[in-house]
Amino acid sequence: MFELNGFVAGAAAFSIVVVIFIVFFSLSKRYALKRKNEIREFCLARGFSFAEDEALLSGVWNGDFGRALPVPAPSGVPHMFRKLFSSGPASLGFTGLEIFGTGFDRKAGNIVTLPFGKSSLLFLDYEYSESAGEGTNVYSHSVAALKLVFPLPAFTLRPEHLGDKILAMAGFEDIDIPGFGEFSKKYCLKGPEKNSVMIFFTPQRAMALEKTDGWRIQCSGNYLALFKKEGYIPVSDYLSFIEEVKALLDSLGLKT
Known about the structure:
- The protein is built from eight helices and eight strands.
- A hairpin with a 2-residue loop joins strand 2 (104-116) and strand 3.
- It is globular and about 70 Å long.
- The protein has two domains: 2-147, no CATH class; 155-251, no CATH class.
- Helix content is 38%, strand content 24%.
């Protein structure tokens, strides 16, 4: 009787877990569909281009998406599971940008495209996964991406935190812009070619960024990505986000 009761209790617990999973999966799919439809309607109302994923962007950025090759699965993944962990051009790995090369199971969707100077500016929902012990963490961001008309020095800029100050005391310093202490307090700036990065960050550009908060900017030389904290921008705030990105790029002299 004790064994039977234990079996029944275990079966009940398993059933509850299954039900919770089904409910969570159903709600997630419903939210994803609702967001996709809202962003599509947002684009239609404003004359922006919309694509569910990168497969519809073959002509964007002079055909870069059409030439992009699939990103293979990380080394060490068994052959029979490699397809599960590989990423196609949705990873945007061809840009060389850090965010698009981080983790695995990388996905881009709900892509908004609008002209910006001589290039095209993309806004997309982007997510990737990273191993965390025996589990997996999924990270999502609303990202703006731009193919630059002229190459820039590679750099990464993000909000500075306590860990950066500790590393600085140990001799691992970021790049400070002379005369702009507020900029250096707000942001951690790094790049492989320090002198080139400092030349690009003119007083006007440093001053423009001093007036902002929370930006993460990555440049691989020919491509640029801009995003803020984790999570997707609500559709109700999407136009404000687009205008904020455009204004920031303009203040950095990147609209040509």
